[in-house]
Specification:
With 492 residues, the chain is mainly beta. It has two helices and 40 strands.
């Protein structure tokens, strides 16, 4: 294994990356004989301050990185002695942080395998020299984080194409040239580029190997953003394996083949699903662009398309083996329509039950929806909704006739929220133990569902994580904020 050189992160125009080793600590002397290692933390945040993901360089160092430990908290001389003798307590053992290290015989680089906790103190220890070095981790708002978006951690990959993003999926584009970046241990030569793939995905960076990786690849410590701030890169090492090849399957008659995916084309959006294997794709449809992961059973949604138009598209894909493919074609979007969803449910209000219970609807589409004739169903029966126009991007509350908007201690909806009063919600109210709900449009088509999730705490709602989260996908719903968010965007 070899050390991380100080030139490992190069400059990239517009979305800039750099190697920013801070000023090294002044050498100390241990036992009056040998100088203690000079410690360099990358990226440099401040004197003895590290980013949540950091690389540590020690010079000089032992030839065996196993002699160095990283622990949560400070290290006393007694604890260093315990580590040297192998007699550390269970509490000290639990404070150890797993690291990956590399050494060229002169200096040693090591990288923690997980985020360090903001505001906490950590210590590097060299028990054989009775030496330790403590540092503090920067607070969360000081260093933004880029999470690993590809490859998925639960799937085996060749680790030859890796993407990290501030937010994923990612939209927009970044037109910059790649720069050389070696990852460690190895080193493994590669290229770092702004964007997720082919310049698409402005909130991401991607790295592509030029050499065959070893058993594991350690991410860079961080990247320098265009506004001069460092962003920490998720430090989880990426294991290299031999994944099965991804296969592009034929689509059924109701869906279109778009790249490796089968797509349902709607008015302002396209839903993409793969049946076999996983892909990282970057997609352009006219002036819109999107980049994200496609895995079996998890749909992806590209939005902001023009309804009722014939549009050209192009897709770039990379599979788990790092193999690239590209496709082109055309599609036609449908006419503009409403997309009304069951967005939030308050079955256990802080106030009086069942009077203060409510079901929130949200129109996630580009056209308004007249609610006359829509039907809300639960295990106890069906409730036909009266008239009311739900505008695009608007919320509505379906409530009992006795519901009071100003009832304390329940949260009140904003003024102007559409209130849809019905004779009853559920069978003698909505069950706090959870009950499945579904919404039908006037054509008797089920357009939205919420699963049965219990609400044991008064004032706690069940909320959709985002308006376009699929009904059937595990993780699309969770318990909301205390009091819920009636008539406004969900807070989780």
């Amino acid at each position: 294994m070899k050390r991380l050189p100080r030139s490992s992160l190069s400059v990239l125009a517009a979305f800039v990356f750099a190697s920013c080793f801070g000023p090294p600590e002044r050498p100390e002397f241990t036992r009056g004989i040998q100088p203690a290692p000079v410690v360099t933390l990358t990226p440099f945040v401040g004197e003895r301050i590290a980013a949540p993901a950091t690389h540590v360089n020690l010079n000089p160092s032992p030839t065996d990185g196993g002699e160095i430990v990283l622990v949560h908290g400070d290290l006393s001389s007694r604890e260093l002695k315990e580590l040297l003798l192998g007699s550390e307590s269970a509490a000290l053992e639990a404070r150890k942080v797993e690291v990956t290290w590399w050494n060229d015989g002169t200096s040693l680089g090591l990288a923690p395998g997980a985020w360090l906790e903001p505001g906490e103190t950590y210590a590097i220890g060299w028990p054989a020299r009775s030496w330790s070095y403590s540092f503090r981790v920067a607070d969360p708002d000081e260093v933004p984080r880029m999470a690993r978006a590809w490859p998925p951690p639960e799937l085996e990959s060749a680790a030859t194409f890796i993407v990290w993003c501030l937010a994923a999926p990612s939209q927009g584009e970044s037109d910059t040239a790649p720069t050389t970046l070696d990852l460690w241990p190895g080193p493994v030569r590669g290229r770092l580029r702004a964007g997720a793939l082919e310049g698409i995905g402005r909130d991401c960076v991607s790295w592509e190997a030029l050499d065959e990786p070893g058993e594991v690849v350690v991410p860079p410590a961080g990247v320098l953003l265009g506004d001069g701030r460092w962003a920490s890169v998720e430090p989880t090492p990426i294991a290299s394996g031999q994944p099965m090849p991804s296969v592009v399957r034929a689509c059924d008659a109701d869906r279109h083949a778009i790249g490796p995916a089968c797509a349902t084309v709607m008015d302002d959006r396209v839903e993409l699903v793969v049946e076999d294997g996983a892909w990282w794709i970057a997609m352009r449809i006219e002036s819109s662009s999107w980049a994200g992961a496609l895995t079996p059973g998890t749909p992806a949604l590209m939005r902001e398309l023009q309804p009722g138009m014939e549009l050209g598209w192009e897709v770039f894909g990379v599979d788990l083996r790092g193999r690239r493919r590209a496709w082109k074609g055309r599609l036609r979007t449908t006419e503009a329509t409403a997309h009304v969803v069951l967005n939030e449910v308050m079955s256990n209000p802080a106030g009086v039950e069942p009077e203060q219970e409510w079901v929130e609807l949200y129109n996630d589409g580009v056209a308004g929806a007249e609610l006359q004739g829509w039907v809300l169903e639960d295990p106890g029966g069906a409730t036909v909704l009266p008239g009311g126009m739900l505008a695009s991007g608007a919320h509505a509350l379906v409530v009992n006739e006795s519901y009071r908007e100003d009832s304390w201690p329940d949260c009140a909806p904003p003024k102007g929220t559409l209130i849809v009063r019905v004779p009853k919600l559920g069978n003698q109210g909505l069950s706090n133990g959870g009950e499945a709900l579904q919404l039908r449009d006037p054509n008797d088509r089920i357009v939205s569902r919420i699963p049965a999730i219990s609400s044991p705490k008064a004032g706690e709602s069940i909320a959709r994580v985002r308006p376009d989260a699929p009904d059937w996908l595990e993780g699309s719903f969770t318990r909301g904020a205390d009091g819920g968010t009636p008539g406004t965007a969900n807070t989780l």
